[in-house]
Amino acid sequence: MKVLVVGSGGREHAICMSVAKSKRVDKIYCAPGNAGIGQIAECVPIGAMDFDKLVAFAKENAIDFTIIGMDDPLVGGIVDAFEAEGLKVFGPRKNAAILEGSKAFSKDLMKKYNIPTAAYERFDDAEAAIAYLKTAKMPIVLKADGLALGKGVLICNTLEEAIEGVHTIMMDKKFGDAGNTMVIEEFMTGREVSVLSFVDGKTIQIMSSAQDHKRAGDGDTGLNTGGMGTFSPSPFYTKEVDEFCKKYVYQATVDAMAAEGREFKGVIFFGLMLTEDGPKVLEYNARFGDPEAQVVLPRMKNDIIDVMEACVDGTLDQLTLEFEDNAAVCVVLASDGYPVSYQKGFPITGFDKFDNEEYFCFHAGTALNDAGQIVTNGGRVLGVTAKGKDLKDARAKAYAATDWISFENKYMRHDIGKAIDEA
Q1: Dmax of the chain from CA atoms?
Q2: pLDDT tens-digit readout, 358-390
Q3: Is residue 108 part of a domain?
Q4: Where residue 206 sits, what CATH number does that domain have?
């Protein structure tokens, strides 16, 4: 088979690496890709939102299967564009990707179908939102309705912070049109757990759990980011949590989307909060998480092409997902100053040590300079991942491997997976 992967981050590198392990695949293309992806796939200089060019490329190169990694093209309708030309593509159609594309839609869906989530109100008017906040209990959570690179959520401890947050989202339009509508929801406490799943429209198969670290600084301080590291599995995702979610969250979401005429095929990412009142849904994503993919996919035993084709064909019930009985930890190496401002173009060294099956270096923001050197090209630069016999072993290995990589203004959190010690 010839496979095209659409995207350019660490998630897409992890997908390409899984595709490369498939015995069914002869050739991988990635659009637009990055310097690391370029070592296992042919990078194609077409942007992820350039649907016409991507479709034309797939037809001209007889691509058998396309995998959409990123949220923006999914929400924008790239799957519909490919299917309209008779091309086989993995990911939800536009009317299903709204599960991630609109937080207001997903909250209304959960409310309608009794899927446990935080209490909320939605607003299209800033003054009405502020008036509501003056009656609300603090702390409180503000969410831009649309896509905001994982950064459109503000946790406000005081009324003053919350009012400032409304200005940021709805008036100053920090997140662009994503802030035209805003969701205000109750602040939940508990542990966060990420659960990825494969869905074929009616059947859902759960992958191994993971736990992300969103804040930029140690101790969960600083600004929200796209993710500074993660580990899998989560020791807090117990058998009891799994049984509850299978009954009230996972299949219920798939059935709700089908009932709404929005059949979902692809990956649903469930962001869960384990509260005193039981698990509740924080958010949905309509694709693999990043960096969750970097710890979940290396542990999956299945041929990823078999699983993804089953999602497209509606035959997922005929497969069983299998994962290695081990653990993985990913530490993100970022450019100092991320997520606000940072410099690019610094040469990176140390890749040569990642040459076995226990250590991985997933490229997120990298490029090749004119001299052919791999250089920094983003806020999140690399995801250094290690597998181990258990979480503590994997964590020790991952942090040891971060020392192998050098570049100017390298920054990372030093407490990824620290929660493991409390489990």
Answers
A1: 60
A2: 999 999 999 999 999 999 999 999 999 999 999
A3: no
A4: 3.30.470.20
Of 153, 186, 219, the one marking the end of a domain is 186
Q: Does the predicted model carry a pTM greater than 0.90? A: yes
How do residues 315-328 score in pLDDT, each as one tens digit? Answer: 999 999 999 999 99
Determine the Cα–Cα distance for residues 15 and 297; give it in Å rounded to an integer: 7
Cβ 376 vs Cβ 366: under 8 Å: yes
Please indicate, yes or no, whether residues 341 and 259 belong to a single structural domain of this protein: no
Please give the Cα distance from 150 to 146 (Å, whole number). 10
The residue range of the domain holding 37 is: 2-91
- 342's enclosing H/E stretch is none
Domain count, the chain: 4
| H-type alpha helices, 179-274 | 239-245, 251-259
Mean pLDDT over 72-81 rounds to 98
Q: How many CB atoms lie within 10 A of CB 411?
A: 18
Torsions phi, psi for 151 (to 5 deg): -115, 5
| CATH code for position 67 | 3.40.50.20
